[in-house]
Write a structure and sequence with these properties.
Layout: E1 4-16, E2 23-35, E3 39-43, H1 50-57, E4 65-70, E5 73-74, H2 80-89, E6 90-93, H3 97-100, H4 107-119, H5 123-136, H6 142-145, H7 155-167, E7 173-177, H8 185-202, E8 205-210, H9 213-219, E9 222-227, E10 230-236, H10 237-242, H11 247-255, E11 303-305, E12 308-310
Parallel strand pairs: 3-8, 3-9, 6-7, 7-8
Antiparallel strand pairs: 1-2, 1-4, 4-5, 9-10, 10-12, 11-12
Helix pairs in contact: 4-5, 4-7, 5-7
């Protein structure tokens, strides 16, 4: 039986937009659980709030509302040393490995920082640990790789360094934000296989942020679909891909490569979603081909049907 590692309840993140009286809500009352050793994918189009949710989970963004529990301990308002300990337990791998690595530091220096900061290893112990991490992520021979700079590495190698740096803190969970989207297609499979191997060997949990439903289906046990800052569908990956419940999930699948659909998608609008405070009704209503009057009248609560969750009045 797997045990719950992290529980996020009604998370809200707000950003000011054009003054103190105007705000947008890129994460709006999102609730999510992640079990030990589980991978949960968060999918959605650009601007849906995926990355903002990921940064909120690792506490690099301030929560406006909501609660995060790590092994039943409230970590939502941690500060100082306690927050540093939490960030060691919940690491993040960013989308662009070239931007996330310091161009003036070698590979060993990049990985050595969390080893010294979080684990207090120095000297020979740190040297051996860096080599072990490089071998673990497939960068060999380690002694040659450790003195290279980011510009001397390929995109896939840089992402492996970023993964090794996250592993250096001995995390319980990694938030991987589009970890393969900046890489060549031929390299993506290798990085996904590496993450799967780490999940299996080390028991690390993952929140896997992506716009690629094929990657989400391959890597994750569950998929959560976000639109306009809200989680509109959540369930086992195979079921969400094979039998989507929410109209937005169906459109995402229809727009994916290999869907077989050659005609225009049946959405009624292509305008950006409303992220303002005080919006009413389903945020997808302006684009939904199945919209009804009640979709715009009030907030649509998320409902559970067996092990599936969906926020849509059309699903009963």
């Amino acid at each position: 039986m797997s045990r719950e590692l992290l529980r996020a309840t009604d998370l809200v993140v707000r950003f000011p937009a054009g003054g103190l009286s105007r705000w947008i809500v890129p994460v709006d009352r999102v609730s999510l659980t992640v079990d030990e050793g589980e991978a949960v994918a968060i999918v959605g189009e650009s601007g849906s709030g995926k990355t903002t949710l990921g940064r909120a989970l690792v506490r690099t963004l301030r929560l406006s509302q909501g609660q995060i529990l790590l092994k039943n301990k409230d970590v939502s308002r941690l500060q100082g040393r306690a927050l540093k300990q939490y960030r060691a337990a919940v690491q993040m791998v960013f989308q662009d490995p070239f931007a996330s690595l310091n161009p003036s530091r070698t590979v060993s220096q990049q990985i050595g920082v969390p080893i010294r900061f979080h684990r207090r290893l120095t000297g020979r112990e740190a040297h051996a640990e860096i080599n072990q991490l490089l071998e673990q992520v497939g960068l060999t021979p380690a002694e040659d790789m450790r003195e290279k700079y980011p510009h001397q590495l390929s995109g896939g190698q840089r992402q492996r360094v970023a993964i090794a740096r996250a592993l250096a803190a001995n995390p319980q969970m990694i938030v991987a934000d589009e970890p393969v989207s900046m890489l060549d297609v031929s390299i993506r499979a290798g990085i996904l296989q590496l993450l799967s191997q780490l999940k299996q060997d080390l028991g690390i949990s993952f929140v896997f942020i992506t716009h690629d439903l094929a990657s989400a289906r391959y890597f994750s046990g569950r998929i959560g679909v976000m639109y306009a800052g809200q989680l509109v569908e959540l369930g086992p990956a195979a079921q969400v891909v094979a039998e989507p419940l929410h109209p937005y999930t169906r459109l995402l699948l229809a727009a994916s490569p290999g869907s077989g659909i050659k005609t225009a998608l049946p959405e009624t609008s292509q305008r950006a979603p409303d992220l303002s405070i005080g919006r009413v009704g389903c945020p997808f209503a302006p684009r939904c081909p199945l919209v009804e009057a009640k979709c715009t009248a009030s907030a649509i609560p998320i409902q559970w049907i067996a092990d599936r969750a969906v926020a849509c009045v059309q699903v009963r």
